[in-house]
Write a structure and sequence with these properties.
alpha+beta; 16% strand; four-stranded mixed beta sheet; four-stranded antiparallel beta sheet; 573 residues; 12 strands; elongated
């Protein structure tokens, strides 16, 4: 009777694990809000906001995303005050979450990163203030003369906040060793074993987001609108120098934006006065002959329009699964990617090869020495790490027992697929005639991608340590529950491994309503009525998006207009 009861318990456990596997087949954050994103692509911003509110709760782990996503959607819908209320709340939440809480870190350590609050990437925190400043600019246009100055000053406050954030991007964060309880101590030991997996393949100095040339440019724009011409000059020049010294190259933007920023720097010098002995030489050095001639068209009797085009949507982060095991004979940790057969297979393959795979002659020799010809071949599609230097710690943690049985466990890390750009060049048409090309000013897709590349090693180390710790605990629990019965222990161990595998997940959350790229252009226009058309071609030919703006301008007026250029997927209309 006791044996039958034991096996009934095992059967119940296996059934529960099966349900767990079926119910928690991990849906990425992007997949969870896809219905809202689809409505956004169709231009139904109100419908998109309603879908987002269903998926994202204002008081849960996704509370920051709740306010960021809704804040941007309200901006696009022209509900600027509501947008700013959401973004102000997002700012408060992001500030509160910026210092990592040890308790949150432990809950993540014992489960997966989605069981903790989303804190936001550095560039996402900065873009909260970007959209708040745009809201104030749009409200100022709608307000007219009465109250316009106060709204422009509010935009300047957001610009100053950007200055502060860009000046303090790198801050000290807590570590797992900050807690002294037994579980965090065990996880800290696991991190000691696997921290070396974070060895960098990429130069962090080149990839790190430490400044933002585009937001420096927008800061100059806001200062100019406020009449603070010297502050505007400084901001434009800072943007120009950043684009020129490496920002444009880092994010694949080309060099035209650097010239545009220098153009506005010199324009401020001419307009503010006192630079007559300096600006002509700077213009000859930094501007083309066409740009120097264009300076003459910006005067007190003309109006000007600055067009900001937001293109596409940032990519979704996906999940890459790997099988984690230990080869006790060679004392190696072995990670083999599980690509699956879906459309993401190619992107996963590229990410693993770029971030983790043992490549090159050194990797070939290392794998051949440890496992012969087969090992050398497998090494090109796996990640192997020698554990001999820390084998005593491995045995102390009983990690060899938990993972060295040939079954191993599943480890999940985030990845970005190759960036798919659906759009080509953008042209401005004024009153029916082509006037100018839009200039690439920012790539949030590249910002997100490069941040993930920098985090890849740490993501793998934490994921391996997390799943290894869960495997050890499950193994110990199975032995305790079996009470010496080897057959029962085997079944319990198998059930435990299923449960551990089912709980593996990666951090796939990010601010998905952000644009993929941003383009800018500035035009000098005669006072009066104008029709401005922004036409964007598709990457493969044809028209990607077209937007039309009707303007009525006065002499000396400076108008900022924003355009969201999206295309709905085929068959969604």
């Amino acid at each position: 009777m006791r044996v039958n009861a034991t096996f009934r318990l095992i059967a119940t456990l296996l059934l529960a694990v099966g349900i767990l596997l079926g119910s928690s087949a991990c849906v990425t954050y992007g997949g969870g809000v896809e219905s809202g994103l689809l409505k956004m692509r169709q231009g139904d911003y109100a419908g998109s906001a309603a879908e987002m509110e269903k998926s994202l709760k204002p008081d849960g782990d996704d509370r920051l995303l709740h306010h960021m996503e809704l804040g941007l959607l309200k901006h696009l819908a022209g509900r600027y005050k509501e947008s700013n209320r959401h973004l102000a709340q997002a700012e408060r939440i992001a500030d509160n979450l910026y210092t990592r809480n040890v308790g949150d870190m432990l809950s993540v350590a014992m489960s997966n990163p989605r069981n903790g609050p989303y804190r936001g990437a550095d560039f996402e925190r900065v873009f909260i203030h970007y959209y708040r400043s745009l809201n104030y600019l749009m409200l100022a246009v709608a307000k007219g003369a009465g109250g316009r100055e106060a709204l422009l000053e509010s935009a300047a406050v957001e610009a100053r906040k950007v200055d502060v954030l860009l000046g303090a991007l790198v801050r000290e964060r807590g570590d797992y060793g900050d807690s002294r309880d037994e579980q965090s101590s065990s996880f800290s030991k696991m991190m000691d074993v696997f921290r070396v997996l974070a060895g960098r393949r990429h130069d962090p100095d080149w990839l790190t987001y430490r400044e933002d040339a585009y937001l420096r440019y927008v800061t100059g724009l806001i200062y100019e609108l406020n009449g603070s011409l010297d502050d505007a000059r400084i901001a434009y020049q800072k943007a120009a120098e950043l684009y020129e010294s490496g920002y444009a190259k880092q994010y694949g933007l080309g060099q035209k934006m650097a010239e545009l920023a220098w153009f506005d720097t010199i324009r401020m010098m001419r307009q503010d006065g006192g630079w007559e002995s300096e600006w002509p030489a700077l213009a000859r050095k930094k501007l083309s002959a066409a740009s120097r001639k264009r300076l003459e068209s910006f005067g007190a009797d003309t109006a000007q329009v600055v067009v900001i085009q937001h293109l596409g949507l940032v990519p979704h982060r996906g999940e890459l699964d790997l099988r984690l095991s230990i080869n006790k004979r060679t004392r190696e940790l072995v990670l083999i990617p599980l690509y699956g057969n879906g459309p993401e297979r190619k992107g996963k393959f590229v990410w693993f090869q770029a971030m983790y795979a043992d490549r090159g002659l050194l990797g070939l020799v290392k794998n051949y020495q440890s496992s012969g010809v087969v090992g050398a071949v497998v090494g090109t599609v796996s990640k192997r790490f020698p554990l001999s230097p820390v084998w005593n710690l491995v045995e102390d943690l009983k990690l060899d027992e938990a993972l060295g049985d040939g079954i191993g466990t599943r480890v999940t890390v985030p990845y970005y697929p190759p960036i798919d750009t659906a759009y080509g060049a953008s042209e401005l048409w004024l009153d029916g005639s082509r006037s100018a090309s839009m200039v690439d000013a920012q790539s949030l897709a590249q910002l997100a991608l490069q941040e993930q590349i920098l985090a890849a090693g740490g993501d793998l180390s934490e994921a391996v340590a997390r799943e290894a710790l869960k495997s050890v605990l499950a193994n110990e629990a199975s032995k305790s529950a079996a009470n010496g019965n080897e057959g029962v222990a085997t079944l319990f161990k198998f059930a435990g491994k299923l449960a551990v595998a089912a709980s593996s997940a990666a951090e796939t959350r990010n601010w998905l309503t952000l644009p993929q790229g941003i383009r800018v252009q500035r035009l000098a226009l005669s006072p009066g009525k104008h029709k401005l058309t922004i036409r964007t071609s598709a990457a493969g030919g044809g028209l990607y998006h077209e937007s039309e703006k009707r303007l009525k301008l006065t002499a000396g007026e400076m108008r900022v207009i924003t355009v969201q250029s999206l295309i709905a997927p085929r068959g969604s209309r």
